[in-house]
Each structure stands twice: as structure tokens, then as C-alpha cells.
Amino acid sequence: MPFLFSAVTDLLQALEDNAASTKTAMKGWLDQKNKDHIVSWVKSYKITVDSPLVDAVAVLSALFPDKRTDRVYGLQAPSLSKILGRCFKLGTARIKKLDQWKTPGNGDLGLGVERTLRETEHGQILNPVTL
Predict the structure, then answer these.
(1) For residue 17, what are the contacts with CB-CB under 8 A and spacing of at least 6?
(2) Torsion angle of alpha carbons 116, 120, 126, 127, nearest 10°?
């Protein structure tokens, strides 16, 4: 059974939500909440990750991309946005929609990609992304 990339994004989203909802003065509480969430996540996916069909290096690379010095390409959001526009063969209107992430209050590039793809035929993902 392959390991779903959405499991990684769910973990990262939960940690980001914790950080966004916690004040700086509550750092110790946030650290414990994050630790509890990570431990729970690892326990719930341990059997899947231990499967011989799952590439553990790929899972760890998704969780800690900065540790893979051979995989750091130095792409920043503006250039990545252009690359994604070409990869998804977006037209001018869709590229403008994608580039709305640059306007304050419209989220980040990931949210821009999600919004744009949801409105296109690419929005229907037939096979989930796995690691």
C-alpha cells in the first residue's frame, strides 16, 4: 500500500494551524501540543510506513526536505509559480488567477495553486499522490 502524500500535508497543516492559533507566550504549551499531535500521527501511520511497499526515504524527504541537500534547488515562489503555470498548461486568465497569491491577504502559492486547479479540469485528481 503506497503512502498518501495527503497524510503528510494533513500533519503539516495541523502543525501550522496550531502555530496560527497560539500566542507567543504559550510556546511551551504549543510545543507539547505539537509533540502530542506528531506522536499520534506517527502511531496512526506506523504500519503503513513500515510496509515494504513504502519508500521510507521518500516519506522522510517529504517531512524534512531541507535535510536533503541533493534535492534543494533554490526555487522561490515567484519562479515556481511560473513553472507550475507551464506544467499545468494554464492560459493567461488562469495564470492571473494563480498569481493572486502575490496580493496580501490571498494566501500563499500553495493556496493559489489549489484555488486555480479547483476551477480547471485538472482539479479532478483521479489518482491520489503517493510517496
Answers:
(1) none
(2) -30
pLDDT on residue 102: 92
DSSP string for residues in 24-86? GGGHHHHHHHHHHHHHHHHHHHHHHHHSTTS-HHHHHHHH-GGG-GGG-----HHHHHHHHHH
CA separation for the pair 78, 95 (Å, rounded): 12
Closest CA to 84 of 61, 48, 117, 120: 117
Query: pTM of whole model > 0.90?
Result: no
* Exposed / middle / buried, residue 98 (Cβ in 10 Å: 0-12, 13-18, 19+): buried
Q: Which three cell numbers stand for residue 41?
A: 500521527
Cα of 52 vs its chain's centroid, Å: 24
Over its C-alpha atoms, the chain yields an Rg (Å, rounded) of 17
Q: How many CA atoms lie within 13 A of 49 on its CB side?
A: 16
